[in-house]
Structure formats: C-alpha cells, structure tokens
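Shapes recur. One chain:

:::
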Amino acid sequence: MSEQRRQRLRMEISREAARLFWLQGIEATTGEQIADAVGLSVRTIWRYFRNKESCAEPVLMYSVEWFLSVLRSWPLECSFEEHYATELTKLAKRYREPDEEADDLAASKMIVLANTEPALRTTWLMACDQVEREFAVIIARRLQRATDDVEVRMHAAAATAVVRVFSEALNAAYLSGTDLATIGDPREHLARAVRQATGGAIGDPVVS
C-alpha cells in the first residue's frame, strides 16, 4: 500500500471515530464500532492506530496543518497581523471540497471534546506540540538564534499556549452558536496575545 493510500485510510478511520466520539462519547465507543463504521476489521484498525483515542489524531492534526503552513510562509518583513490576514483571505477565496468542510467541523468537535475527555486531550496536546516545534523554528529565524536556544523555546511554548487557548475558545463558541464577533478580530486578538506572551519578542516585522 502506498503512503498516500495509507494516510487516506487513516483519515477515513479518523472521521468515523470522531463522529462516534462526538455522538456517544469516547468511553462508550469501541474499536468494533469504529471498524464497522469504516467497513474494516478491528485488526486493521489496530494496525493503523495504537488505541481508540489515537484514532482522532488525523482529524486533530488536520486542524493545525493550515496554521503550520501559515507559520512556515511568514515573511520576515511582515507583521503577524498582516501575514495572518493575507492567509485568511486566500483561504476564504479558495474553493474547498465538501470533505474539507466536514473535516473542519470534525476537528472543531474533537478540540471541544478534548476539554472533558482526558485521553483525547493527550492527542490534542500532541498536535499542539507540532505547532510549538514549528514556532521554535520560526522564532529562531526571526530572532537569529538557534532553535534549541532556551529563550526561543520559552517563546515558542508561550506562543503555542496562546494559540491553543484561542483555538479552544473559538471552536467552543462556534459549536455553541455564539456570535464569534464577541471574541474579537482573530487577527488582532491572536497577534496581541502572542506579543504579550512572548514579551513583545514576536509579532512585528523583522528590520534588517
């Protein structure tokens, strides 16, 4: 089986697992139910995932992949607000397949569910760890320091915590039907929070 097919199958399993987790909770969901929903054997499910909670990993990683791409493409000469606004505009204009919209919703549900399901929260925090690692690379480049520099790592951890909390609040508000305007402009709010969390070290353009 090709790696592309393997990843596609993992995502199919993850979608069904997320649907069941949201409908009936993680404890009530069994590996057999996930396997039946996808049309696979239980043995095949465990070939791709170490336990039932980890079945949510692809959906949760989907939720952070776009943000990771935003970080990777952040030009030195741009502020975070400018770059984030540009990427949001591109996303809004791009045609999105129905599966992408469904995956967005599934990811939102898993992020919210992670607040009350400890096993799922571990999976969510693992996804956030990928954001922290990417932040370290970006921050090191902007500060002209090594990625393993203690200050760089502290800034990366602080910035990631801000992104995680903001993501949890935004998704909870979205699923509850709350007016998202009450949270504020995500560009300004997130950039301001990142600056505050890093003591102003990150967020502004880098002047050469």
